[in-house]
Write a structure and sequence with these properties.
By secondary structure, the protein is an all-alpha fold. 81% of the residues lie in helices and 3% in strands. The chain has a two-stranded antiparallel ribbon. A hairpin with a 2-residue loop joins strand 1 and strand 2 (48-50).
């Protein structure tokens, strides 16, 4: 039998099988994408427990992400490094100077007689000495603050709590907004692969006739 005649005789099969296979592939991937987040509450069908991946693993993901954040992304050492940077030191000096200016102005306004003694170069010298003193004790103060942070701030626990309590509908919305093209491509790819598999099945059936 000639190939064109074989194809003509089996044209409905040639169209129907790849189409159904493509539909099955698309539906399968569509459901797989949806099941990342849904169903949010588990239910059973034919004895199988159906539950979305993220809702089911939310607590485990929270623990894992919390550990990763504390181990690889941010730690108390990172905070300490920022606090001990030259930029922070410069800001401390600036803030100290501003606060001392306000303090001196308030003292002078409340005690006019003091203005006779604290003015001009003397006021500038007092301010400079106080700023130097505050800057000198700042590292010790920041070390003590950092010690309190280390004793009371648990990055892992904070991240874990935030993720466990995060609204899944909002998380789903964010992920779909960011990855909508890629998720749609996964669905389409399921249909394309299903169509190719369907064509292969038809070809095999025709060869075996």
């Amino acid at each position: 039998m000639q190939i064109p005649q074989t194809i003509s005789d089996n044209l409905p099969l040639l169209i129907l099988v790849p189409t159904i296979a493509a539909l099955i592939g698309w539906v399968t991937n569509f459901l797989a994408v949806k099941m990342i987040f849904r169903p949010r509450r588990p239910f059973r069908i034919f004895g199988l427990r159906i539950h979305g991946l993220i809702p089911r693993r939310q607590k485990e993901l929270a623990i894992s992400i919390g550990e990763t954040v504390q181990r690889d992304l941010i730690s108390h050492k990172d905070v300490q490094k920022v606090l001990s940077s030259s930029d922070v030191e410069a800001r401390i000096r600036k803030l100290a100077g501003e606060q001392i200016d306000l303090f001196i102005s308030r003292i002078i306004s409340e005690n006019p007689m003091v203005a006779m003694f604290i003015q001009g170069s003397l006021a500038a010298t007092i301010k400079e000495r106080l700023v130097d003193q505050m800057s000198a004790i700042a590292p010790t103060f920041l070390d003590q603050v950092m010690q309190q942070v280390e004793d009371n701030l648990d990055f892992k626990h904070i991240v874990q709590e935030k993720i466990e309590g995060f609204d899944l509908s909002k998380l789903e919305e964010i992920i779909y907004r960011i990855s909508s093209k890629e998720l749609k491509m996964i669905e389409v790819l399921g249909g394309v692969l299903g169509f190719i598999v369907g064509l292969a099945q038809v070809a095999l059936m025709l060869v075996m006739q």
